[in-house]
Amino acid sequence: MIRVNGRSYRLAHQPTVVVCVDGCEPDYIVQSVAHGHTPWMKEVLTSGTVLTADCVIPSFTNPNNLSIVTGVPPSVHGICGNYLFDVATDTEMMMNDPKWLRAPTILAELANAGQSVAVVTAKDKLRKLLGHGMKGVCFSAEKADEATLEENGIDEVVELVGMPVPSVYSAELSEFVFAAGVELMSHERRPDVMYLSTTDYVQHKHAPGTEDADAFYRMMDGYLGKLDAMGCVIALTADHGMNAKTRMDGAPDVLYLQDVLDAWLGAGQTRVILPITDPYVVHHGALGSFATVYLPKGADVAALSARIAAIRGVDSVRSREEAAAFFELPADRIGDLVVVAERSTVIGTSASRHDLSGLDVPLRSHGGVSEQRVPLIVNRKVKGVDLDRRFRNFDAFDLVLNHVD
Ligand SMILES: [Zn+2]
Questions:
Q1: Cα–Cα distance, 117 to 131 (Å, whole number)
Q2: DSSP codes joined into one string, 216-241
Q3: In the beta sheet, which residues pair with residue 392?
Q4: Helix (H, G, I), strand (E, B), or coil: what is residue 347?
Q5: DSSP conformational letter for 94
Q6: How far apart are CA 372 and CA 177, in angstroms?
Q7: Ligand 1 midpoint to CA 173 (Å)
Q8: How high is the pLDDT of residue 188?
């Protein structure tokens, strides 16, 4: 047994894989199964354990991937966005550096206990966080050709996988992750525990049940079937769901909150931070359904909250303390207000700061409570768990390590 962040885990006694399918709204699975594209998943839906779980809010990639690999919410591990305002240095910055991580990962502790561990992620932005303090294999599809034994615990990845390094904006970037996972499991260095994390490029562009979405899940199903045939215990979950964020004319339904606050209080008085921001914004224009706001000293927090809450498209406004408690966030890394938009609305800073020219299809995005529900599926029957309780996506390692024979 190991104990990590207050939870106990048995060591893996059979090859165990946890997959985070980025942006996997449960309906993607419903539709691809209904359309006959995913025979492995169809079988698992009857022979395995099929749950829905809640991801952490903000329903963004980094906070949720880190919750899955630490087993705890952002209030414990510290990663509350892809991007933050660092009060100490008065700068906005990416949250990719492991210096922001406040908790060890289950993966690192399994490796410390002598297990062989492998991590494959689509985008490189997650690699250093997921692999922090971990002995083992850890690389991204995006930079697979740069992997070295010293830095990544493996080299010649492109030769191993037999696929060229895909574009960062492609379905193939995720396929590379699955193909690498199958190759790693087929070799002598077969890991005891493997974590695979894809990218939501397809989900940002294609709704459940559409041809491209179904093709993506058909691709994934083939690889998961191979891992299952090798005897792997597999848990599949997601970092967040995905919804259309448009008006009826198909244009993005955006609340430019910085523009609103500048009009109310004057320019430079407040700072709206969008934790969805990352270097890869072409497919979502850095627009999601969650924002945090820094206010000037002495601002009337209650009055401003009420005023923002009355804007069309706003779902909730909470003070720092309320949001930290309700969403389990680190209070020192969020602003004075946390604003969550409704299902079809996204929050921007200023209209002039968002480049929407890359949006070639109606906007689909995430970040809010409306994208909190995700699949939590295990290819075996789990035992000793009340299946009617609320599950979180970060229960995935508990289920596969502690509740599968
Ligand atoms: Zn994501």
A1: 10
A2: HHHHHHHHHHHHHHTT-EEEEE-S--
A3: 54
A4: strand
A5: E
A6: 24
A7: 14
A8: 82
